[in-house]
Amino acid sequence: MITLAQLIACGIGPTQARTFVDPLNEAFHAYAIESVPRMAAFIAQAAHESSAFTRLEENLFYTTPERIRAVFPSSIPSLAEAARFVRNPKALANRVYAGKNGNSNEASGDGFRYRGRGLFQLTGLSNYSAAGVKYLANPDLVTTPLGAALTAGWFWSAGNMNALADTNSIDAITRKVNGRAMLGAAERRAAFEANLKALA
User: Fold this and answer.
1) DSSP labels for 2-49?
2) Is residue 122 part of a domain?
3) Could you tell me the pTM of the whole model?
4) Is there a single domain that holds both residue 167 and residue 192?
5) 26 exposure class (CB count in 10 Å sphere: 0-12, 13-18, 19+)
6) Statement to judge: residues 165 and 192 lie in one domain
7) 50-109 tens-digit pLDDT
8) Which of 97, 122, 137, 162 pairs as cysteine with 111 (C-beta 3.0–4.6 A)?
């Protein structure tokens, strides 16, 4: 169990900490994330993915084609094509997530419907479905504090990340949460070390 004071000591702002302490404890209990290393690693990853628990939905509103190409180089092959998706998050999500993680084609709308949400940015029809039928039927539930915590807990458990946390394998956890990009790996490692001290 994590306390409000401990969550704040892990760098989560007081308002967000008050909002999330009970949902986190429910997820921690449900998915056996109850040792100090497990909680420290989970909070480090969740804080990085959600901007310290303040952003529970993927921001797909890009203002330049260059940025779209930089973020989605394999899905958007040229600047000219990227220009079509500037300031158009729905079309962008439907393009870049088409045929991935259980989503159907671009026209299906699955990409935007099952875009990244929650503490770990749960993405794709198959992940929403596996996390719980209620999330598949109502994807916005993943943006509620309890839905965000429980789906992150499910993703953590499905990826066998408790075992990785037990051996302080933070880079391996980052790879499972963030993929090959490993964005913010150094920051996640530093947060984990700070969280270990805060929770000790």
Assistant:
1) --HHHHHHTT--HHHHHHHHHHHHHHHHHTT--SHHHHHHHHHHHHHH
2) no
3) 0.94
4) yes
5) middle
6) yes
7) 999 999 999 999 999 999 999 999 999 999 999 999 999 999 999 999 999 999 999 999
8) 97
Structural domain contains residue 136: no
- For residue 185, CA distances in Å to 45, 69, 118, 162, 189 come to 10, 22, 20, 18, 6
The answer as to whether 163 is a domain residue is: yes
Tallying the residues shown for the chain, one arrives at 200
Domain membership of residue 69 as a residue range: 65-113
CA-wise closest residue to 11 among 46, 58, 55: 46
Residue burial 83-94, b: 16+ Cβ < 10 Å; e: rest: eebbeeeebbbb
Tokens of 161: 């990340």
Helix orientation angle between 170-178 and 36-49, rounded to the nearest 10 degrees:
40
All residues at 6 or more sequence positions from 145 whose CB lies less than 8 Å from its CB, including other chains: 19, 20, 23
